């Protein structure tokens, strides 16, 4: 009986060493994604002035239905930056 027990244990150990059982992929907690270059540039631009920040948030809410830069695509970030630059140029032209 001891021989049959050792024979049964042998193949089971070899199988587990050769081919581990397939498991369902573990669900990883979602990491906060890093900001893209366009998002970082827009955030820097917005931090330069409270007025620019308020104007950017209003534009993003109106155009993209969010006031969070990290929810914008790179194209939307560039579009927001260009809008802010145009507003600044228009304001400086009025003062001149």
Describe the structure.
The chain has 96 residues and is mostly helical. The chain is 68% helix and 0% strand. It contains four helices and no strands. Helix 2 runs parallel beside helix 4 and helix 3 crosses helix 4. The longest helix is centred in the C-terminal third of the chain and has 22 residues. The chain is rod-shaped. The mean pLDDT is 82.
Would you spell out the secondary-structure blueprint of this structure?
Elements: H1 2-18, H2 37-47, H3 50-64, H4 74-95
Let me know the average pLDDT.
82
> What kind of sheet is the major sheet?
none
Q: What is the helix tally?
A: 4
Large-scale geometry: rod-shaped
Query: Unreliable stretches, pLDDT < 50, 5 or more residues?
Result: none
What is Rg? 29 Å
Proportion of residues in extended strands: under 5%
Helix proportion range? 55-70%
SSE run: HHHH
β-strand number: 0
Distance N terminus to C terminus? 102 Å
Structural class: mainly alpha
Structure in a nutshell:
The protein is mainly α. Helix content is 68%, strand content 0%.
Key terms:
68% helix; mainly alpha; 0% strand
